[in-house]
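Researcher: We're teaching a course module on how sequence relates to structure. For the next exercise, students receive a sequence and then see the predicted structure as tokens, so they can try to spot secondary structure elements on their own. Here is the exercise chain.
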Amino acid sequence: MRIHIKNPQVLTYADGAFAAEQKDLYIDGERIAAVGEAPQGFVPDKVIDGKDRLVMPGLMNLHTHHYMSLFRNIANDVPFHAWLFDNMMPREDKLSEEDCYWGTLLSIMEQIRTGTTCFNDMYVICDAAAKAARDAGCRAYLGRGLVGDDTGDGGRLQAALEEMDRFAGDPLLTFTLSPHAPYTCSGGYLKRVAEAARKKDVLLHYHLQESAGEVQGIKEQHGVTPIVHADGLGLFDQPIILAHCAKAEPADMPYLAKPCVSVVTNPASNMKLGNGFAPVPQMLKAGVNVCLGTDGPASNNALNLFRDMTLFALIHKGVTEEPTELSAVTALRSVTVNAAKAVGRAHELGQIAPGYLADLAILDLNAPELLPHNDIVSSLVYSAYGTEVETVLIHGKIVMEDRHFTTIDEERVRFEIKKRTGIFG
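Model: And here is the predicted structure for the students to work with:
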């Protein structure tokens, strides 16, 4: 389909800065054809009125567990160890593929409604997340959470590899290999997974240095931090996304700054579970590619990157007592250009420019919290709620128009979720 978005403000990016200018936007199929003047011979199939609207890159949520919407607001206000081992893992054992499908679809609804067009998911049952993302028309990076030791993993790695083959060729689905954490994966098993990732040429996605208990345990076993230990296993010699790093230490920074490494900070989840604040200002000074994630809806308990951008920018000002830390531009980069770099697609995601994929969010600039238009980037980070999002395109297809989903049956999703209320409580 060819789409002409007429007279909007378009948020572009160049030389490290964002700028909003009134320009027409032209989309041909899955990609942006032009910004400004129409391509020669361009005849649109659809025209969208962009008056008093902002077109911005769709946000990218680089760490989450979408199936966990079924566990939302269960086991709140408990310590991290008890939350994970006593509350989440036993409930995960009860999940069916159908449960995970509907839970993931509910999460996709929430994220599209707040302008997120791409998510990086670690899940527990193969096929469910892929089917949900495919049916919703959402861009997804997907990895079965892998747990194992030197004796084996119960077939998890093989199942993940077979899932990749089943969904091969879908332009919206990219698979990762996702070992869970250093306390659930032995060093030998991590090497095995890393070697499989090299052979398949896929990203690794790994929880690392999330809690004080994890750091203490790895130091007692190996004499180094989990980050240094992971590097010694060869994990950082290939593209890898590290979730959390909330307890990263000064000596860890050179390892996190390696070219293949990206860190995803999850401020809401880390605060809620009492794991503190990732030392993001130090990471940025060291040259680390820092991205933003919500984590799962059982530990956030939302999937709204506008909310998390606000937290991300504000908490580091408060912790450091320095108002210049974590600018609005830095926060917005974390969910756009930095995220695109982390998944190896800086050439076609995270920005609005000719040739880039048309993953876009259209916001109502007349929303009272965005007025007056003194600084659009500051408005997006410090003022927006995500409710300003009216229309969303993914891969050039409209998946939400005037706040109505075009690919998801909202009533069916609500029905299926309500059927499951209380089952996992």
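Model: If you want an answer key for the exercise: The mean pLDDT is 97. The first helix runs from residue 80 to 92.
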